[in-house]
């Protein structure tokens, strides 16, 4: 068999492509020129920095787990379900992708705040959510859930239902098919979605500061700390920003080999 010929690219594409790459890379790289390498370690290991980093990792892990708990069933229903209602449901699920995060924070506050739709009943039960670490997790989940749903739904549609049908014809129950056939087939897509959801949670700012506030040790995550430091200590803000950049690069490295990006 003869090899398929490789179709070359128009030369004019390379100019805009390089410009686009420079537009993304140059601002990030320029941050490394703002601080001395010898000062970096002391800036990122201060008490406030360590507290924000630990809180960010804890809440992002919790929100990712919540995204998996809610997003796997949701993505499966969207990919394999039938009905006209799936279109509107998909649009609502993807809404956080286009909403300003601060609007998401206001929506959560309107639901779980003291004067919110459910806040009064929860307060009566002794459950307070707004301006707590739980609020941080909910805000992160609200903005990152669509990333997992999109990734998993796409993987499910690509995998198709052929093996599911075969398993069902052999007498496997729907739950068994889902657990033993469907999910193992789309495991790379699920892993990629989870990593993307974690990364989005780690970088969440607008919904968090609106719904959870910025209380050190309780709700002040890394993005909120950077926002505060930009006025009081610009070098520390740059150093913490570079920490988030490093995490983002690591996340991309974890996702890219699986073909999710």
TrEMBL record:
Cited Pfam families: BPD_transp_1
TM region(s), chain numbering: 12-32, 52-79, 91-113, 125-152, 181-199, 236-255
Record domain ABC transmembrane type-1: where: 53-255
Gene3D superfamilies in the record: MetI-like
Tagged with keyword Transmembrane: yes
Membrane topology: Multi-pass membrane protein
Intracellular or extracellular location(s): Cell membrane
Alphabetical UniProt keywords: Cell membrane, Membrane, Molybdenum, Transmembrane, Transmembrane helix, Transport
CDD domains linked to this entry: TM_PBP2
Protein family: Belongs to the binding-protein-dependent transport system permease family. CysTW subfamily.
Main function: Part of the binding-protein-dependent transport system for molybdenum; probably responsible for the translocation of the substrate across the membrane.
Annotated protein name in UniProt: Molybdenum transport system permease
Species assigned in the record: Nocardioides daeguensis
């Amino acid at each position: 068999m003869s090899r398929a010929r490789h179709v070359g690219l128009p030369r004019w594409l390379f100019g805009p492509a390089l410009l686009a790459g420079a537009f993304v890379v140059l601002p990030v790289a320029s941050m490394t020129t703002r601080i001395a390498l010898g000062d970096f370690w002391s800036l990122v290991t201060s008490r406030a920095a360590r507290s924000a980093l630990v809180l960010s990792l804890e809440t992002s892990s919790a929100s990712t787990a919540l995204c998996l708990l809610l997003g796997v069933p949701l993505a499966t229903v969207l990919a394999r379900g039938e009905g006209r209602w799936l279109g509107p449901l998909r649009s609502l699920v993807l809404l956080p992708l286009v909403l300003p995060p601060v609007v998401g924070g206001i929506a959560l506050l309107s639901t779980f705040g003291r004067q919110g739709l459910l806040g009064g009943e929860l307060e009566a039960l002794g459950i307070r959510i707004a301006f707590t670490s739980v609020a941080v997790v909910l805000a992160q989940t609200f903005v990152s859930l669509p990333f997992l749903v999109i990734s998993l739904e796409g993987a499910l549609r690509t995998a198709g239902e052929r093996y599911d049908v075969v398993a069902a014809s052999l007498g496997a129950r729907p739950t068994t098919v889902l657990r033993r056939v469907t999910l193992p087939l789309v495991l790379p897509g699920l892993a990629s979605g989870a990593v993307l959801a974690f990364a989005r949670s780690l970088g969440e700012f607008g919904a968090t500061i609106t719904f959870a506030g910025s209380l050190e040790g309780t709700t002040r995550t890394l993005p909120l700390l950077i926002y505060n430091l930009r006025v009081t200590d610009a070098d520390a803000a740059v150093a913490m920003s570079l920490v988030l950049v490093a995490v983002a690069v690591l996340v991309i490295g974890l996702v890219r080999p699986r073909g999710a990006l």
